[in-house]
């Protein structure tokens, strides 16, 4: 996974398309990222007993990495991530402005 926690991204597909957020968590196994306050789904629960009174609960759902694009912190543009290998160190670079990000 090219994205990491703290990256600012824009959602490019789905119900929150066009919204921006900072990655709160990544799930590399599933290629999913979690953005706080975005991609919230609501579920209605039936009352089962006194401990579970039911109601509506909201929960965030991860967004597939294919549905988000990185916003470069240097040039502020929506970009793709490239890699540069320098003295055995792998750096992420912005494909637009070529800054290390
Ligand atoms: Zn850039």
UniProtKB/TrEMBL annotation:
Keyword Transferase: no
Biological role: One of the proteins that surrounds the polypeptide exit tunnel on the outside of the subunit. One of two assembly initiator proteins, it binds directly to the 5'-end of the 23S rRNA, where it nucleates assembly of the 50S subunit.
Domain KOW, first and last residues per copy: 2-29
GO biological process, any: translation
Gene: rplX
Entry-linked HAMAP family: Ribosomal_uL24_B
Protein name according to UniProt: Large ribosomal subunit protein uL24
Keyword terms: Ribonucleoprotein, Ribosomal protein, RNA-binding, rRNA-binding
SUPFAM superfamilies on file: Translation proteins SH3-like domain (SSF50104)
Species of origin: Candidatus Gottesmanbacteria bacterium RBG_16_37_8
Listed GO MF terms: rRNA binding; structural constituent of ribosome
Family named by the database record: Belongs to the universal ribosomal protein uL24 family.
Superkingdom field: Bacteria
Cellular component aspect of the GO annotation: ribonucleoprotein complex; ribosome
RNA-binding listed as a keyword: yes
Quaternary structure and interacting proteins, as annotated: Part of the 50S ribosomal subunit.
Pfam families: KOW (PF00467), ribosomal_L24 (PF17136)
């Amino acid at each position: 996974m090219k994205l990491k926690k703290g990256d600012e991204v824009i959602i490019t597909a789905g119900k929150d398309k066009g919204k921006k957020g900072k990655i709160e968590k990544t799930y590399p196994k599933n290629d999913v990222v979690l953005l706080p306050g975005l991609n919230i789904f609501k579920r209605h629960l039936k009352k089962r007993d006194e401990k579970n009174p039911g109601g509506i609960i909201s929960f965030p759902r991860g967004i597939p990495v294919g549905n988000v694009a990185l916003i470069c912190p240097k040039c502020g543009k929506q970009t793709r991530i490239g890699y540069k290998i320098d003295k055995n160190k792998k750096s992420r670079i912005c494909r637009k402005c070529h800054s290390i990000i």
